[in-house]
Design goal:
This protein has about 600 residues and is an alpha/beta fold. It has two domains: about 280 residues, Zn peptidases (Aminopeptidase, 3-Layer(aba) Sandwich), CATH 3.40.630; about 240 residues, no CATH class. Helices cover about 50% and strands about 10% of the residues. A seven-stranded mixed β-sheet has the order 1-2-4-3-5-7-6, sandwiched between helices. It has a two-stranded antiparallel ribbon with strand order 8-9. Strand 1 and strand 2 form a beta hairpin. Helix 11 runs antiparallel to helix 12 and helix 13 runs antiparallel to helix 17. The chain is globular and about 80 Å long.
Amino acid sequence: MLNGRLYRLSWLVAALALLVALLTLESPAGAPEPPLPPAFDAMAARAIAADLATVAPERVPGTAGDAASATWMAAQLGAVPGATAVRRQRFSVMTPAGRVVTENVYAALPAQSGSTALGALLISAPRDTPPGVHGGESGSAVLVQLARSLGTVARNRPVLVVSTGASTAGNAGARWFISRFFGVPMSAAVSLDDPAGTPDGLHVWDDGHDGRRSIPAAAAAVEAAMRADAPVVPGPGPFAQIGSMAVPQTSGDQAAYIALGIPSVTLASRPEGPLSGGNLATEHALGDAGRTAETLIASLDQGDALAAPALGLVISERELRPVMSRIVILLLALPILVAALDLTVRLRRAGVRLLPFIAALLWRLLPVVTAILVAHLLVTAGMMAGASGGWPPPAAQVPRDLPAVVAVLLSGGAGVLAWRVVRHRAMRRDAEVASRAATGVIALGAICLLLWLASPFALLIALPAAHAALVVTRARRPWQVVALGLVAAAPAVLLAGWAAGRIDGDLPYAAWYLIETTVAGARGILGPVLAAAILVVVWSLGSLVMSRVRRGLVAAGPYRPVPTEDERMARRGRRPLPRPSFTRRDRA
C-alpha cells in the first residue's frame, strides 16, 4: 500500500531541509549591564523570612494562615519608601477541595527618571503553600527587601510589586491580577517562587500553560545570575522542553503572564514543580537570589523590550527560532503528508469512495469519546479531582484512591460497551480491507496537519506512533510489527517519565495524573480530541495488520491500496471472494 520509494525520498528531502534549519540556531540576545552593582541586604531578608514563618507557617488558600500572611504583607509593603498606597484584591477560586476566597496584595513604585511611557516591570511572589507544607518564605522575603531597595534608586520604568495568593490553585492570583491590569503596558515580569529554599542554585522557569516559552527572558535571568556570582542550575534538555510545550505543566506564576504575551520568568530553588517545603532559607542563599533578582530588574529597566513568548527550543544554549521550530516539525511529518496525498490521488483515480471507510474510523472514535465524556461526568460528581483554577491541579490534589479507580473502571466499561454496540459498523468484513487501510493513512495525514496547526510540539510527541502505523502496513515479519509497536509506545512512556519528574512522582502515577487531568478538562479540548483521533487511526491500522499476522499473511507483502475488479464484485455479492494472492507487482 505504502509507496516505499516515495516515502524514502520524502525523508531525504526532509533530512536536507533539517540540516539547513539547524544552521539557523542563534544565541539569545543578552541584557545590558546594570548601572550599579547589586546591594541586596541578605541579613534583612532572612529576618523578614523568619517573621513570616512565625506569623503564618502554613498558608493554604482560604485559611486563617493565608489571611494572616496577607495582612502581614500589606504592612511590609506599606513601609516601602516611595511606594503608592497598598491595595488588596479579594477573589475566589475553585479548587478540588471546593471554592475558596483569598487575595493579592500589591503596591506600585513610580518611575523616578526617564520616560514614563515605558512599559512597567512586574515583580511578584506567591505567598501561599500547598496543604500540609511549611516553607516558601524566601519568595516573599526577597520581594519585600527588593522593593525596599528599588524604592531608593532611580528607575526608567515603573515597577509593580505583587504578593499573589492561590498560586497553588492554577496560579489563580497572578491570573486575577494581570487580568485587572492588562491595560497597563508591561515590559516584563519576574516571579520569585521560593528562590532561596535550597543552597543548590537557582532554577529558571520560562514556560506557560499554553505551551509558549519566554526564552529571551530566561537568557537574561541566567546572565543576571552570572553577573551576581550566583549558581544557576542548567536548563532542561531538548526532550524536557518538548514535553513542557506538548503537554504544558508548570507551577510558576510566570505562566499567567506568558498567557498574555508578557516576557516572564520565575526564579526558584527547585526544578519546576510544586512547593514541597523545607527549612528557613540561609542568608547565603537569600543573598544569591536577591542579587540575581536585583541585577535582572536593573538590566530589564535599562534595556529594550524583550521578544514576546513563543514556541522555541534551546539546543546547546542556542535557540531554534519559533518559525523554524514549526518548519522543522512539519518536515518531520512530511513523509506522512506525502504518503497521504499519494494515496488520495490513487484512490480517486480508481474511483474508490472514501466516505464508507471514514465512517468506519468515526465509529471507532465513538467509544473513546464515550469513555472521556463519562469520565468528565464522574469528575463533576466528585469521584475524581477536577481542575484547579481552570488548570491542572497539583499532584497532591489528584489522589489515586478507590473512588478514582472506580471512576476509571466505569469510564473504561462505558467505552467497551460503546465498542460492542458499534463494533460491526466499524469492522465491516468486506473485500476492500486494503482500501480501509489506505483511508486510515489519509486520515492520519489530515490529523497530523491539524495537530501541527494547533500544537506543533504535541505533534512531535505523536509522530513516532504515526510513522510506525504507516510503516507497519509494509511489514513482512511478525517481529517487525512488534518492533514498530514499541517505537509507537516509546514517546508516551518518555512523556510519562517527564511528567513523573515534573510532579515528583513515579511512572505509573505520572501516567495516571496525565490521563486524569486530561479527562477532567484541565488541559483544554482540542489537543486531547486530536490525540484521541490519532490513537484511533493507529488502532485501526494496527488491527488490520494484526489480523494479517494471525492469518500468517504478513510475509506475503503489503496491501494493495486499490481493490481488483474481483474484490469489488465480491463486495457486492456477485461473485465469490478470491483467495489472497500476492505477486511481485502487488508488493511494488
